[in-house]
């Protein structure tokens, strides 16, 4: 559903003129975020509190546009075209207005669409699929070498026979991670992203059928090791989990706040190495909480098994609340 | 360098609109970029002309509107602009806040002819 105009956000470009008329009163300034709360395609007139003509049409499902023409006292004609694309969510605050002036020869087209609207749309579809299939999906994000695959090996072993698991694992090259995860009772699919530094929602969607066909309840999506790029791409996951190994430095959450703010859970890995390091755990926890006050922090060592029970309990409750 | 994917996604959206509307060329694009969007201006501006080559947006100017992070505090009710990376209330220092701005990465408008 398009949040702007309420129309179904299906094929953006499918032409579907529905055509009915009505009038409404419309008090607005130019060059701002433009919220329309009506849910239909139509041509209608507007009663405006400033002098200009205005036409309004919907050219397709979820694609809604209208045009204003202003004539200023010096005779210059300004044309503004507002196009509203369907998008998953609009930010609550728009900080700066778009320019309200166009010249005689160029036109300013107000677009107001998220750049990642297409990824967000696909992520919403993934979310629907997970609900439909009764799958809890976990998007695991961390820097390379923080222990995502090691944690998954131990997790799959521990849950084998208790919770049916599946894994989609992303790397730029090789299927080494998939090989490591095979034979532990879970369906495993490797995505080689080549030059891409993150997984996107469409890549996950393309691999859902095969990996979930055997009725998995818990899907781990092991993202490409990277603390920056994966944070921007919603995959439709149920929970985003960040991993942070104790060798990485206590201030890492402060250096990469977008990821750690977006993760309700941070798993601190490799705690068996603490006796050999200068790592200040209260400082590390404080850094996580400074970017996300309510983050759940689980400290563990996949190698020794310390703290694994808390992680496994967390997963079990997610699947069987 | 996910900015390359983002530049591609943006140009695809705008080129579709431009084609549908019969615009000949996109002259400039105004982009809103939040401090917590995870998108950096410089790599995005670097990637854009490369991806724009051969599209209706080739040679288009990019204009950025930067949005500071704003948090709304559940403890004292204040709306403040914290010093990123700290996502804390600027008035009472509580961490119990919601980010109300700064996550945006949106196309605001484009100039076409």
Structural description of this entry:
The complex is a heterodimer of chains A (321) and B (113). With 321 residues, chain A is α/β, with parallel strands linked by helices. Helix content of chain A is 25%, strand content 26%. In chain A, the strands form 3 sheets. Chain A has a 7-stranded parallel β-sheet, sandwiched between helices. Chain A starts with 20 loop residues before the first strand and ends with a helix. Residues 1-63, 74-78 and 85-104 of chain A have low confidence and may be disordered. Helices cover 27% and strands 31% of the residues of chain B. In chain B, helix 1 (3-21) crosses helix 2 (41-52). Chain B has a single domain (2-112), classed as hypothetical protein PF0899 fold (2-Layer Sandwich), CATH 3.30.2320. With 113 residues, chain B is an alpha+beta fold. The relative contact order of chain B is 0.26. Chain B is elongated and about 50 Å long. Chains A and B meet through strand 6, helix 1, helix 5, helix 6 and helix 7 of A and helix 1, strand 1, strand 5 and strand 6 of B.
Note the main attributes of this structure:
heterodimer, A: 321 residues, alpha/beta, seven-stranded parallel beta sheet, four-stranded mixed beta sheet, disordered N terminus, B: 113 residues, alpha+beta, hypothetical protein PF0899 fold, three-stranded mixed beta sheet, three-stranded antiparallel beta sheet, 31% strand
What is the alpha-carbon Rg of chain B in Å? Answer: 17 Å
Chains forming the largest contact: A-B, 52 and 50 residues
Order of helices and strands of chain A: EEEEEEHEHEHEHEEHHEHEH
Q: Give me the side-by-side strand order of the main sheet of chain A.
A: 9-8-10-7-11-12-13
Helix content estimate of chain B: 25-40%
Shape of chain A: globular
What is the total tally of β strands of chain A? 13
């Amino acid at each position: 559903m398009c949040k702007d105009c309420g129309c179904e956000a299906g094929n953006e470009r499918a032409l579907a003129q529905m055509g009915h008329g009505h009038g409404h009163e419309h008090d607005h300034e130019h060059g701002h975020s433009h919220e329309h709360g009506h849910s239909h395609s139509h041509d209608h007139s507007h009663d405006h509190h400033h002098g200009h003509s205005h036409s309004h049409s919907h050219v397709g499902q979820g694609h809604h546009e209208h045009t204003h023409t202003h004539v200023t006292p010096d005779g210059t004609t300004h044309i503004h075209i507002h196009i509203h694309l369907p998008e998953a969510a609009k930010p609550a605050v728009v900080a700066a207005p778009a320019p309200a002036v166009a010249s005689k020869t160029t036109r300013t087209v107000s677009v107001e669409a998220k750049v990642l609207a297409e990824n967000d749309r696909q992520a919403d579809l993934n979310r629907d699929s997970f609900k439909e299939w009764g799958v809890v999906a976990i998007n695991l994000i961390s820097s390379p070498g923080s222990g995502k695959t090691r944690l998954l090996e131990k997790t799959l072993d521990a849950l084998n026979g208790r919770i049916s698991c599946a894994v989609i694992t992303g790397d730029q090259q090789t299927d080494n991670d998939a090989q490591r995860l095979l034979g532990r009772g879970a369906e495993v699919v490797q995505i080689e992203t080549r030059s891409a530094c993150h997984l996107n929602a469409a890549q996950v969607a393309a691999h859902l059928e095969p990996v979930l066909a055997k009725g998995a309840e818990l899907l781990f999506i092991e993202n490409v090791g990277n603390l920056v790029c994966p944070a921007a791409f919603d995959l439709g996951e149920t929970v985003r989990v960040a991993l942070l190994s104790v060798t990485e430095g206590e201030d890492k959450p402060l250096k990469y706040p977008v990821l750690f703010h977006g993760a309700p859970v941070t798993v601190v890995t490799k705690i068996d190495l603490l006796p050999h390091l200068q790592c200040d755990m209260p400082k590390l926890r404080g850094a996580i909480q400074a970017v996300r006050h309510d983050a759940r922090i689980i400290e563990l060592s996949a190698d020794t098994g310390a703290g694994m029970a808390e992680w496994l309990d967390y997963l079990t409750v997610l699947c069987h609340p | 360098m996910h900015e390359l994917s983002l530049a591609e996604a943006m140009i695809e959206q705008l080129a579709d609109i431009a084609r549908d509307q019969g615009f000949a060329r996109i002259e400039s694009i105004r982009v809103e970029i939040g401090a917590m969007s995870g998108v950096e201006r410089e790599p995005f501006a670097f990637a854009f002309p490369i991806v724009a080559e051969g599209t209706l947006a080739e040679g288009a100017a990019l204009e950025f509107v930067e949005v500071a992070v704003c948090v709304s505090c559940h403890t004292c009710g204040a709306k403040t602009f914290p010093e990123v990376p700290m996502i804390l209330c600027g008035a009472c220092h509580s961490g119990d806040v919601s980010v109300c701005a700064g996550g945006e990465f949106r196309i605001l408008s484009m100039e076409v002819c």
